[in-house]
Amino acid sequence: MRKVILLITVLLTNIFAESVFSKGNKHLGFTLGSSNNFNQTYMVAGVNVNYFILDNLSVGTDYKGFFGASPEIHQLTVPVTYHLPLENTTYKPYLGAFFNRTFLEKPFNDYSIYGGRAGFSIQTSINSFMSLGWVQEFGNSGDNIENQGYPEISAGFSF
What we know:
It is a single chain. The protein has one domain (2-158): Porin. The chain has one helix at 2-20; strands spanning 26-37, 40-54, 57-67, 73-83, 91-104, 111-125, 128-140, 145-158. An eight-stranded antiparallel β-barrel has the order 1-2-3-4-5-6-7-8. It is elongated and about 50 Å long. It is mainly beta.
C-alpha cells in the first residue's frame, strides 16, 4: 500500500510540476515591497504576465510603479525565463535574462537596464507557484554605469 501511495504521489507531482511550466500556460504575478532610490524610500507595486512559448520557456512583461517619494518612477521589463526540466521533483531551477526601461519624472532622464536572474520555482498547487532567486542588473543611467544584485521572492498563478 505504501508503494502505491508513493507512486501516486510521484505521478501527481510530475503532472502538477509539468502543468505549470507547459507550453501555452500563462503566469500572473504581483510585486509588493519597498526600494531605496534617490536617497528616499519608495513603496513598490507591480504586476507581471508571462506566457510559455515552449515547455519550460516563458517570455513576458512586467510593470512596477514606485510610489511615496519624488521623482515618480515607472519600470517596464521584458523577461525571458527557462525552467530546467528536472524529473521527479516539484521544484524547477530557472535561468533568465531581461531588458528593463525605467521612466523618471523630469528633470531626470529615463534609462535602460539589462540583466540576468537565477533561482528555483516550487509548484505549490495545480495552478500556483513560488520562486526564490537572485537578480543581477547592469545599467547605464546616463551619468555612470550602475551594477547591483538583489534577492527576488515571488508568487504567482498559472492559467
